[in-house]
Amino acid sequence: MGHSTKLLTPTQTVGDIFSDEFRQKLPAKLTNVLAQSGVGPIILWGECAMLYYGVPVSQNHMHLLVPDDQLETAYKVLLAAGYKDSPLPLIPIVSSRDPNTRWE
After folding, report:
1. From residue 41, how far is each of 32, 88, 96 by CA, in Å?
2. Residue among 37, 31, 93, 90 at smallest CA distance from 62
């Protein structure tokens, strides 16, 4: 099972996704929900890891890694906690820097 999702809380607005305060609090909320359900170890990656170390970033997404055998459980736990699955389609793009097609 693979999910490429953007999880939104029931009360979250699109503007919340881009607020620094929201982005700094969300990783702790997500990891706590998963840890309480026995999912782990949990690794923050990309932008969230950089924010943890105080490195400014301009991206607005999060990478949350869980063990492969716990992916289904983690997904269900986050849905049960009120997060919504809002998958984005994979769109092939070609960059002038990289002539090979890649998925983003």
Report:
1. 11, 26, 38
2. 31
Query: Does residue 65 lie within any of the structural domains?
Result: yes
Structure confidence by residue, pLDDT tens digits, 62-98: 667 788 898 899 889 988 988 877 666 655 555 555 5
Per residue in 38-60, pLDDT tens?
Answer: 988 777 777 766 766 776 666 55
In a domain, 2, yes or no: no
Establish if 68 belongs to a structural domain: yes
Which helix (H) or strand (E) element contains residue 44? strand 43-45
Peptide bond into 41 cis (omega under 30): yes
Number of domains in the chain: 1
pTM over 0.90: no
Does residue 51 lie in a domain region?
yes
Q: The CATH number of the domain where 37 resides is what?
A: 3.30.70
Joined together, the tokens standing for residue 49 give 């890891």
Cα–Cα dist 94/44, whole Å: 28
